[in-house]
Amino acid sequence: MKKYKVGVVGCGGxxxxxxxxxxxxxxxxxxxxxxxxxxxxxxRLSKLFGTKDAKVYTDYKELLxxxxxxxxxxxxxxxxxxxxxxxxxxxxxxxxxxxxxxxSYAEAKEMLAARDRSGKVLSIGYQNRYRxxxxxxxxxxxxxYFGDIYYAEALAVRRRGVPTWGVFIDKEKQGGGPLIxxxxxxxxxxxFVMNNYEPAYCVGRTxxxxxxxxxxxxxxxxWDVDKFTAExxxxxxxxxxxxxxxxxxxxxxxxxxxxxxxxxxxxxxxAGADMLDxxxxxxxxxxxxxxxxxxxxxxxxxxxxxxxxNPEDLELAAFLRAVSGEGKLYVTADQAAVVTRxxxxxxxxxxxxxxxxxx
Length: 359
Ligand SMILES: NC(=O)c1ccc[n+]([C@@H]2O[C@H](COP(=O)([O-])OP(=O)(O)OC[C@H]3O[C@@H](n4cnc5c(N)ncnc54)[C@H](O)[C@@H]3O)[C@@H](O)[C@H]2O)c1
Description:
- This protein has about 350 residues and is α/β, with parallel strands linked by helices.
- It has helices spanning about 15-25, 40-50, 60-65, 80-90, 105-120, 130-140, 170-175, 180-195, 310-325, 335-350, and strands spanning about 5-10, 30-35, 55, 70-75, 95, 120-125, 150-155, 200-205, 235-240, 245-250, 260-270, 270-275, 280-285, 290, 355.
- The protein folds into two domains: about 5-130 and about 305-330, Rossmann fold; about 130-305 and about 340-355, 2-Layer Sandwich (Dihydrodipicolinate Reductase, domain 2), CATH 3.30.360.10.
- The strands form two sheets. It has a nine-stranded mixed sheet. It has a six-stranded parallel sheet with strand order 3-2-1-4-5-6, sandwiched between helices.
- β1, α1 and β2 (about 30-35) form a beta-alpha-beta unit.
- The protein is globular.
């Protein structure tokens, strides 16, 4: 069986922690090229995860010249997602790009245009959609179990969890802070469960309240106050064209007791659900309010064969099925572009102090 040849651009934490182990566990790919502007990172991961003759690059344009490469993983800081993805698609490669899709909606649209002219597959790394709770919630929503979902909360709130490695706190390189970094996951999950991709307007506020503090109790140790140019918290209220609303809360550091990350709460006119203590379905049964806690210990509801129950493995399996033409993408770039569009709207509203209207 022919294995797809994969090239990786960006050999940092997400490459080592998520993507490359999934490729190593799978049987359908081999990773033949590694690129990082810091060469030793590419060398190190090529030894851990690459084929014997894997190539190492410091310039992604050189990697893209290798015609044998079928798939490129774009795993760099956010400000390079668009440029590298467009170049890879134009070079005839399928692309799995990490979240968020881009730092602006204009960039996301450039990526969609490149996908359309190349005819190649483009997906974005929203692996939370493949968690067993998320798969089950989506299945219920698609069967109209909740009815019309008119209120939702997208939650990405840490108590003290500022990422101190890489360039996460650098607004220029990432396009923002927790909103674009973790708010993006919660919003993606929420829109997907609601199956609602038509925003009308939003209001947002960002905060720089804790990012200049020291002795922070941060999980990964104190951050560098001089480098922390992104917001530490951001909150948004989004009104969709059908009148539904989404309250998006995101923070890397907030004085709350209970962190809630990559979770959604949805309320419809028939039932609701949240993920605040595992997945809970809130409904009425025989005249009594009940909370159903699905037993997901048996594993995920598998939509994709051969992927186990690990979200990263399911993400890869779904992507490969689309690449081979055997299935449709589970995370489409069009959906991811709407996530980016709404995040941009929240940042814009914060800048102007006014609601942001989507055209
Ligand atoms: N899906 C998730 O849950 C999740 C989790 C963490 C990070 N991410 C995303 O993954 C991306 C990378 O995050 P990370 O944690 O791996 O960061 P990281 O800093 O650990 O790694 C990024 C790597 O990219 C390299 N790089 C920078 N510019 C480059 C370029 N032009 N060409 C080649 N390499 C370049 C850096 O040298 C670094 O090694 C970000 O977009 C982030 O949002 C996703």
